[in-house]
Design a protein that fits this description.
single chain, 454 residues, alpha/beta, Four Helix Bundle (Hemerythrin (Met), subunit A), Rossmann fold, 434 Repressor (Amino-terminal Domain), 8-stranded mixed β-sheet, 8 strands
Length: 454
């Protein structure tokens, strides 16, 4: 399930009609705007936000001169992209890091929004940047909340500050900051209690924590899949606590996207991070311009490259470059590239980041079967080292043995070997080409992208 897939499909269909027209009339633009408004409302964007957005786009589309380098249809797409970006916050909003450590981040939200897990993901994100986070177990009411954050801390190799469930959250927060100062933790992430609904008791406790430790950031964690309710919750919390930003969880499961499109406009609070899966590294900084590009089918190459760079090390990149030049690509390399790619996330999301593929008609409705990748891994792992290095020796009896060992069919083994031969030919052409020579002189990290995306 791709992010914003429902909204993206409708918008891209609308723009396809515009691009096919040599010249746009005012009625063409009005018709397109009607379709976009319906698409936004169906995506659970608030009526007020949708109306303001349409008015802004229409005013610019009708009133501006079309750039010589663009067709009228492309011009409207350009305006929609700019207005979508502005709607979601214009530019990336980073965490305010204190010049005097520790930086204190307080997480707030309703029960079940994913605060505890988001706190661990956030700590993991900053740990990778060289910071020394301290997680604070400040939710003393929810059964097993303290245990949950301790387990997450253990998984990530991060310290967790806890005083049990008999001490007030305010005192826990105060003592945690002192502990961080004494132990050189430059980041404190305080997990707080939530309720099933907003009430005075909850807000008073959160205000007391804020008053005691003066956090540099108060981040509201909301579930993107609750749509307009997420925006209403954000508005209520902001009114009481003056939150500095939002973490949207479960964005990977939200095909509509109403919360992401509305929250900044309604509350004035930027989205700082988005949860894109259950894994503890599945938290990403939110870039409005990149998200707008993905919604409009333009891809998101920057995020794709960043994902590749975090999963692919320099040594392997150089080895792969050498193999490409010498045409020594083996099934072991094939397996290695596949495993590197899987670390980057779901294939459906990765396809959505590649320009031209996200709105490719031939790919519409194509379900990316992650199970097929598992089968490929099993088949290669069932081969002997010599078979992986020299697949040409794999005869009928070997294929039968490999299929049995991997729990697949001989046809699956044949299919893989055929794919591998085609890939190797492509790699040889790439290795011999001027593009390879150009790439070698170009940006460092070019070969960090798995070969599937080259």
């Amino acid at each position: 399930m791709a992010v914003f897939s429902s909204l993206a499909e409708k918008l891209q269909d609308t723009f396809r009609k515009l691009k096919n027209k040599g010249k746009l009339t005012e009625s063409d633009v009005s018709e397109a705007m009607r379709e976009i408004r319906v698409a936004l409302l169906e995506a659970d964007v608030s009526y007020k936000v949708a109306k303001q957005f349409i008015n802004s786009v229409k005013e610019r589309a009708v009133g501006q001169e079309v750039m010589e380098s663009l067709t009228p249809g492309q011009h409207v797409v350009k305006i929609v992209h700019e207005e979508l970006t502005k709607l979601m916050g214009a530019s990336q909003s980073k965490i305010a890091v204190s010049p005097k450590p520790p930086t204190i981040i307080m997480l707030v939200g309703l029960q079940g929004s994913g605060k505890t897990t988001s706190g661990a993901k956030l700590a993991n994100y900053f740990k990778k940047q060289g910071r020394r986070p301290l997680l604070v177990a400040g939710d003393i009411y929810r059964p097993a909340a303290i245990k949950q954050i301790q387990v997450l801390g253990d998984q990530l190799g991060l310290p967790v500050y806890s005083m049990g469930d008999q001490v007030s959250p305010v005192e826990i927060a105060r003592r945690a900051v002192e502990h961080a100062q004494e132990n050189s933790n430059d980041l404190v992430i305080i997990d707080t209690a939530g309720r099933l609904h907003i009430n005075e008791e909850l807000m008073k406790e959160l205000k007391d924590i804020r008053h005691t430790v003066t956090p540099h950031e108060i981040l509201l964690v909301v579930d993107a899949m609750t749509g307009q309710d997420a925006v209403n919750v954000a508005e209520a919390f902001n009114k009481e606590l003056e939150i500095s930003g939002v973490i949207l969880t479960k964005l990977d499961g939200d095909t509509r996207g109403g919360a992401a499109l509305s929250v900044k406009s309604v509350t004035g609070c930027p989205i700082k991070f988005v949860g894109m899966g259950e894994k503890l590294d599945a938290l990403e900084p939110f870039y409005p311009d990149r998200m707008a590009s993905r919604i409009l089918g333009m891809g998101d190459v920057l995020t794709l490259i960043e994902k590749a760079q975090t999963t692919y090390d320099e040594k392997k990149a150089k080895e792969m470059e050498e193999k490409l030049r010498k045409a020594e690509f083996t099934l072991e390399d094939f397996l290695d590239q596949l495993q590197q790619m899987k670390k980057m996330g779901s294939l459906e999301d990765l396809l959505g980041m590649i320009p031209g593929l996200s709105n490719n008609k031939q790919l519409k409705g194509v379900q990316v079967d992650e199970k097929e990748l598992t089968n490929i891994e099993a088949i290669i792992q069932s081969m002997t080292p010599r078979e992986r290095q020299h697949p040409e020796i794999i005869n009928g009896s070997r294929k039968q043995r490999i299929a049995t060992g991997s729990g697949t069919k001989v046809q699956d083994v044949n299919k893989l070997l055929k794919q591998f031969i085609q890939t190797k030919k492509m790699m040889k052409q790439f290795g011999d080409s001027a593009l390879m020579k150009k790439a070698k002189k170009g940006k460092k990290g070019m070969f960090k992208l798995p070969f599937f995306g080259q």
